[in-house]
Design a protein that fits this description.
Structural class: alpha/beta
CATH superfamily: Spore Coat Polysaccharide Biosynthesis Protein SpsA, Chain A
Shape: globular
Mean pLDDT: 92
Radius of gyration: 19 Å
Number of domains: 1
Number of helices: 10
Number of strands: 11
Length: 295
């Protein structure tokens, strides 16, 4: 059961749609508009767009109501990322779910690169990431390139000229978005775990659930690219103790999982094998599990 004041609206024509794009949004209208514009403008194929609106006090709800080609769910209160994604799942009408943040802008051909990869794989036991370009130096999964840190400074023209010529190999995927997964696989692991609401550490938790379901093909697709302004929603939330929750649930830190299981950011070399965990890491995780019981 969903709480009073929550709405689900399905009205878009989904015939011929390839992917269902889930976008959770929390009072972030300028970025949401930019994100949806990029999907409509830069996609090779037709897609179902589903927005979950948390609160919508900035005009998001009114604007979405005017977009006849966008499906949406709405909650009067901010129910967070995990509940929002699972709520949006109820409207999905295609075989594949794409999860993308509202502060992202997809580049031309992002979806064709995903589709080509899926067709080459030939089965649904996969988890694919797009490759993000970001204005802040971060990690070896992303491309560090500054095309603006907010909507006002966004250099869309330069991005569209340059995004495809920046070299980047396919990589061992992270747990971040934009990502794509078969609906059957999403459902098999139960979607996003609501105990991590509003959403911190829900990404590595989702990837761990896939690992436990014997998914070993985690791939970052270089040809699928998106610009990410960076934490325009999550940066407003006070972090809770999800770090320790992950440890209690899985018996290791998220860092151990992403580094030693997913080998995150390393050049892609096929499906992942079993991790090799040294004594030092095992002792560290034993200590972290003990410490987490008191948090």
């Amino acid at each position: 059961m969903w709480a009073q004041g929550e709405i689900s609206v399905q009205r878009a024509d989904c015939n011929g749609c390839s992917f269902s794009v889930l976008i959770p949004s929390w009072n972030n209208l300028p970025y949401l508009k930019n994100c949806i514009k990029s999907i409509k403008m830069n996609s090779t194929f037709k897609h179902q767009i589903i927005v979950h609106i948390n609160e919508g006090k900035d005009g998001t709800l009114d604007w979405i109501k005017e977009q006849a080609d966008v499906d949406y769910t709405f909650s009067e209160k901010n129910i967070g990322l995990c509940y929002g994604l699972n709520r949006g799942r109820t409207l999905v009408k295609t075989p594949y779910i794409v999860y993308i943040n509202d502060d992202m802008y997809v580049c031309p051909g992002w979806d064709k690169a995903f589709m080509d990869e899926i067709n080459q794989i030939g089965h649904n036991s996969f988890f694919l990431n797009a490759t993000s370009l970001e204005p802040y130096a971060g990690n070896n999964c992303t491309i560090y390139k500054d095309y603006g840190t907010d909507i006002a400074s966004f250099d869309e023209t330069s991005l569209l000229k340059e995004y495809a010529i920046i070299e980047k190999k396919d990589w061992n995927a992270s747990s971040w978005c934009p990502n794509i997964i078969a609906v059957a696989t999403w459902d098999a692991v139960g979607g996003y775990s609501v105990e991590f609401s509003p959403g911190f550490y829900s990404d590595p938790d989702f990837a761990m659930k896939l690992w436990q379901a014997n998914i070993r093909l985690f791939k970052g697709v270089s040809g699928s690219r998106a610009y990410h302004f960076g934490s325009k929603s999550t940066g407003r939330i006070k972090k809770h103790k999800a770090y320790f929750l992950f440890i209690r649930k899985w018996g290791m830190t998220a860092g151990t999982f992403t580094k030693h299981y997913l080998r995150m950011g390393q050049d892609f070399n096929g499906p992942l094998g079993e991790p090799i965990i040294g004594r030092k890491i095992s002792i560290k995780n034993w200590w972290n599990r003990l410490n987490a019981t008191f948090k």
